[in-house]
Specification:
single chain; about 160 residues; mainly beta; 3-stranded antiparallel beta sheet; 10 strands; about 25% strand
Length: about 160
């Protein structure tokens, strides 16, 4: 299982996404003022030969959203695309951290989560039609109110 952390930093001027293989954590940092789409998490899945049967449903993506700040809400959606090649080393994928090109190190209009080093290998499948749809078509937006982190102040608590 992967986890992820998104940091809205008052000192960041550009966005970045890195993968820490020691913890299995995606870490995305964005400027504190940024309010567009941000990459949260991703997962690669090697489809066994001869493939999966068509029309299998439902395909789901789920997670828990936790914050230490109050008043936070999140609009969340997911997508899936198919690639004929993708690095097993997540750091080599070069995931685009944010939508657009204002604060991204990748100066293009690709969606957040685009695997920039592997775009040439995208094909139709999952929620994508191939060509320029590097992340697949996104689901509808869901607004969630994250749970606040709980730290038990008792001596036996965490």
């Amino acid at each position: 299982m992967f986890s992820s952390t998104v940091i809205y930093s008052p000192t960041a001027t550009t966005a970045s996404t890195v993968f820490d293989p020691a913890t299995g954590t995606w870490i995305t940092t964005v400027p504190a003022w940024f309010r567009d789409e941000v990459f949260l998490s991703g997962r690669s899945f090697l489809v066994p030969s001869p493939g999966l049967p068509g029309g299998i449903k439902p395909v789901t993506w789920s997670g828990d959203v936790v914050t230490s700040a109050t008043g936070v809400s999140v609009e969340w959606r997911w997508a899936a695309a198919v690639y004929t090649q993708l690095a097993s080393d997540h750091a080599a994928i070069a995931v685009k951290p944010v939508e657009g090109d204002r604060v991204s190190p990748y100066r293009n209009c690709d969606r957040a989560g685009t695997p920039e080093n592997f775009k040439r290998y995208v094909i139709a499948g999952a929620r994508g039609g191939g060509w320029w749809n590097y992340t697949g078509s996104a689901t509808g937006r869901e607004r969630v109110a994250p749970c606040r982190e709980f730290h038990d102040p008792s001596p036996a608590g965490g």
